[in-house]
């Protein structure tokens, strides 16, 4: 980071208009340093505040360390799939004046929820600025690479803990309202075969609701090409799918399902049942409700684990009768965090394990594979997140009948 002799203070005032509900990046107000200058030309991208919905970007404000720069700064939007970043669109280059760059985008930039705002320095004049923490915990970061790039890959050495002074606004069209955290249509152990039944009720006062289900298979980074299925349901009606992944042509791997609805609409009432079909022997399985993913933030009593929060997950009370898996589903900003297993008396059952996933990725492993510790009756797991957000759940499966149960990790406390 390069800091000036006189601390640069920029008050970034993003233009606003009625109905502009789509946001990317952030306005830190006070900035105290410049970028890390990996090259004469370089690209910086905010990692912490992806687009909160899909829609159209109409306005961007970028903090810049010098005024009067000619054609020096580009506005860029990137899409991240796993650890790979690709350019969605760019505008400019723009001259810098006042706050830096403060422009209406013409034409607007169509974006998907999770896309990232960035900028590029394309002339030897000025540079992007940011707020760097001064003795406080700041759960924000940006990535910067050399060149005016259209693609690049994630590298920990290129990530910096600071809030990049870049913000974009626009008109939202749709949003991921919730996640069915575990879904399957595939064989399991001991001759089991799991399916996922989904029921949906549109509230009577809601009128006709259209939306989409999107399936993210295990360890496949979330992308626009993931299997999806539209739905349309009238107020007061119920629809159901006995094996929703088979309907979506997405069998073979477990994963999670996003529920996408138009911006400003309430998520319909949805219930899911993951069940083992034993033919004439009936079914075994568990019910689950979707986890709401809009407007999560600093609070307790939620299933979305975010920076500053600690959540806990039960293991089986009797490890001789039940086996257990742990599943982690990252949200639109990806996730970096730790987990650790503990015994029922509070003593450590293993060392701290670090995990990191790109956006909208689902992974499931056996208890011992995730925690590094053998499962003991009464064990539990503590989970903390340093960047991004995630949902964590555990399955408890009867070793004789293969009857599964599901339990979600819950945030117990949060520190701002």
Compile the SSE list and pairings.
Blueprint: E1 22-26, E2 33-34, E3 42-46, E4 54-63, E5 73-81, E6 84-94, E7 100-111, E8 116-121, E9 129-131, E10 142-146, E11 151-153, E12 159-160, E13 163-164, E14 166-183, E15 186-187, E16 193-201, E17 209-217, E18 228-233, E19 238-241, H1 244-247, E20 255-262, E21 269-277, E22 283-288, E23 291-292, E24 309-314, E25 322-342, E26 353-357, E27 362-366, H2 367-371, E28 380-398, E29 404-408, E30 410-414
Antiparallel strand pairs: 1-14, 2-9, 3-8, 3-10, 4-7, 4-14, 5-6, 5-8, 6-11, 9-13, 10-12, 14-20, 14-23, 15-16, 16-19, 16-21, 17-18, 17-20, 21-22, 24-28, 24-30, 25-26, 25-27, 25-28, 28-29
Write out key terms for the chains shown.
416 residues; mainly beta; Hypothetical Protein Tm1070, Chain: A; 3 domains; 8-stranded antiparallel sheet; 7-stranded antiparallel sheet; 2 helices; 30 strands; 2% helix; globular; disordered N terminus
Alpha-beta content class:
mainly beta
Question: Helical amount among residues, as a percent range?
Answer: under 10%
Give the count of helical stretches.
Answer: 2
Low-pLDDT regions: 2-19, 296-300
What is the strand content? Answer: over 45%
The overall average pLDDT, rounded, is 90
Q: How many beta-strand runs?
A: 30
Largest sheet, strands/sense/barrel = 8 strands, antiparallel
Report, as a whole number of angstroms, the end-to-end distance: 25 Å
Shape: globular
Rounded radius of gyration (Å): 23 Å
How many separate structural domains? Answer: 3
């Amino acid at each position: 980071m390069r800091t000036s002799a006189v601390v640069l203070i920029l008050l970034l005032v993003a233009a606003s208009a009625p109905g502009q509900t789509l946001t990317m990046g952030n306005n830190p107000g006070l900035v105290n340093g410049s970028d890390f200058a990996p090259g004469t030309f370089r690209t910086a991208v905010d990692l912490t505040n992806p687009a909160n919905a899909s829609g159209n970007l109409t306005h961007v404000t970028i903090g810049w360390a010098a005024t009067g720069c000619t054609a020096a700064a580009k506005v860029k939007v990137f899409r991240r799939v796993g650890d790979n970043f690709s350019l969605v669109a760019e505008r400019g280059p723009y001259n810098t004046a006042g706050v830096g760059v403060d422009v209406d985008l013409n034409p607007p930039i169509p974006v998907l929820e999770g896309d990232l705002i960035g900028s590029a320095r394309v002339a030897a004049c000025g540079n992007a600025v940011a707020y760097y923490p001064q003795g406080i915990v700041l759960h924000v970061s940006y990535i910067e690479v050399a060149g005016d790039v259209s693609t690049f890959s994630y590298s920990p050495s290129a990530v910096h803990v600071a809030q990049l002074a870049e913000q974009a606004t626009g008109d939202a069209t749709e949003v991921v309202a919730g996640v069915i955290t575990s879904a399957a249509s595939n064989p399991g152990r001991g001759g089991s075969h799991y399916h996922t039944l989904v029921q949906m009720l549109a509230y009577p006062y809601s009128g006709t609701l259209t939306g989409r289900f999107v399936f993210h298979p295990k360890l496949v980074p979330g992308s626009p090409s993931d299997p999806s299925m539209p739905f349309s349901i009238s107020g007061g009606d119920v629809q159901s799918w006995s094996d929703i992944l088979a309907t979506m042509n997405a069998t073979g791997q477990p994963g999670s399902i996003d529920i996408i609805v138009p911006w400003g609409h309430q998520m319909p009432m949805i219930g899911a049942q993951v069940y083992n079909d034993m033919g004439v022997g009936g079914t075994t399985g568990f019910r689950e409700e979707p986890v709401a993913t809009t407007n999560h933030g600093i609070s307790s009593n939620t299933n979305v684990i975010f920076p500053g929060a600690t959540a806990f997950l039960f293991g089986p009370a009797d490890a001789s009768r039940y086996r257990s898996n742990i599943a982690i589903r990252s949200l639109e900003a990806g996730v970096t965090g730790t987990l650790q297993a503990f015994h029922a008396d509070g003593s450590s059952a293993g060392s701290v394990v670090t995990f990191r996933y790109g956006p909208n990725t689902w992974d499931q492993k056996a208890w011992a594979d995730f925690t590094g510790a053998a499962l003991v009756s009464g064990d539990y797991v503590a989970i903390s997140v340093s960047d991004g957000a995630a949902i964590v759940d555990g399955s408890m499966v009867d070793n004789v009948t293969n009857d599964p149960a599901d339990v979600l990790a819950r945030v117990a406390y949060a520190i701002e």
